[in-house]
Specification:
Number of helices: 18
Helix content: over 70%
CATH architecture: Up-down Bundle
Number of domains: 1
Order of helices and strands: HHHHHHHHHHHHHHHHHH
Distance between the termini: 52 Å
Radius of gyration: 21 Å
């Protein structure tokens, strides 16, 4: 089979596997991501059909594309009223969970591996937050309240930013010796403020533009172009591209709520059913390829990294449980605390950030990739089992 034929066959296989996984998710409650990751493992480490060296150069491009599409999908799915209501609680879970995770991993890493505090904090920052892709994929299909799903999606979006900013800042600190807390605080404030504001403004501008070309056949493709430009503009201005995309998506998904900001007396609906359907299908394909990619890059040089990654995964579960327990005190979300605690799978951000220590020539860089990959696999498995258990429990309670 030629390379072109093989590529076409694998593309078809991934899409079919994604569709089958989605169907099984609806029937069994087992997330589709587990089937796709296993397919990636089968195609890569097990059979050698796809070699790691052939796909490694794709990592930064696939990362940006996937994160952009999925955050748009998540933003458009958010109910604005619930988003505003749940933002403080989501921020609390995200920040508390991230800080607890980073400190716990740093302490454990220093104890077990003898790394410096900064190196331990870097590893903790890389695995400090849940994956937007995993959470968004699960949130709309877990049978939980809208309040719960909104909080989980917001938390994952916030921790994606926290992980990315903290990891990049710590790498800069390790390389240049900047004061850690001062540098981290300044960069975080800049990333969040510029990212959110730019995404909001560009989203409003684009809703106005869509209202003037609502009969154009390529509105969604133009929206993707605008989205990529929003991401790049935010990053070039020192903001968070991920947060800009999320804010952009929230504006598009809640255009009626923003219609009062328009000078026109009547604003036509731009984001219709066909627009949402196309957006949903592109998000589906993107997610399918991402999860297969995770399976393809699995590689463990020794059993130590398997055991170490497993221990870190259990520690991260404990810290997430503490963060959720504290943050849901006195809230209706308290009754969904168990399910919220297990939705902590690591994914795209962690996989990409794990490659940076080697890229920047940091010491002990060989520790990060295998450890993080094991954490991704283990937390995904725990999340899968946990969601299956609590979803079944919820269904039994309702019946």
């Amino acid at each position: 089979m030629s390379d072109v034929s093989l590529a076409l066959f694998l593309t078809a296989a991934i899409i079919v596997a994604g569709s089958l996984g989605s169907f099984l998710f609806r029937k069994t409650g087992i997330p589709d991501m587990i089937f796709l990751v296993m397919l990636g493992i089968l195609l890569g480490p097990v059979s050698g059909v796809i070699l790691l060296k052939d796909i490694e150069p794709l990592a930064p491009y696939l990362a940006m594309l996937t994160l952009t599409i999925i955050l748009l999908d998540g933003g458009m799915s958010l109910n604005l009223r619930q988003t505003i209501r749940q933002s403080p609680r989501a921020i609390m879970i995200a920040v508390l969970g991230f800080v607890l995770s980073a400190i716990t991993v740093a302490f454990f890493t220093r104890l077990m591996l003898g790394l410096s505090w900064l190196e331990g904090l870097l590893l903790g920052s890389i695995v400090g937050g849940s994956s937007s892709i995993v959470v968004v994929s699960l949130a709309t299909r877990m049978g939980v309240s809208e309040e719960c799903s909104t909080t989980l999606v917001l938390e994952s979006a916030i921790t994606d930013v926290l992980c990315t900013v903290a990891a990049l800042t710590l790498i800069g600190v390790i390389l240049s010796g900047l004061p850690t807390m001062e540098a981290l605080t300044q960069v975080l404030a800049q990333k969040f403020s510029i990212g959110a504001m730019l995404g909001l403004v560009l989203g409003l501008v684009w809703v106005g533009a869509l209202s003037r070309m609502r009969n154009e056949p390529y509105r969604y493709m133009l929206t993707l172009a605008a989205l990529f430009l929003a991401y790049l503009t935010s990053e070039s201005l020192g903001g968070s591209g991920a947060l800009s995309v999320l804010a952009f998506g929230i504006v598009l998904g809640n255009e009626e709520a923003f219609s009062g900001l328009s000078s026109r007396s009547e604003t036509p609906i731009c984001i219709d059913e066909s627009f949402r359907r196309l957006e949903s299908e592109i998000a589906f394909v993107t997610k399918a390829f991402f999860f297969v990619y995770l399976g393809l890059i699995v590689s463990f040089p020794s059993i130590f990294f398997v055991a170490y990654g497993l221990m870190l995964s259990l520690l991260l579960l404990a810290t997430h449980y503490v963060a959720v327990s504290v943050s849901t005190l006195g809230s209706p979300l308290r009754r969904e605390k168990g399910l919220m605690s297990v939705v902590y799978a690591r994914g795209l951000a962690a996989a990409v950030l794990a490659l940076l220590p080697q890229k920047f020539g940091l010491g002990n860089y060989q520790i990060y990739v295998p450890t993080v990959l094991m954490v991704i696999l283990t937390t995904t498995l725990i999340t899968t089992i946990g969601v299956f258990h609590f979803s079944r429990k919820t269904m039994d309670t309702k019946t």
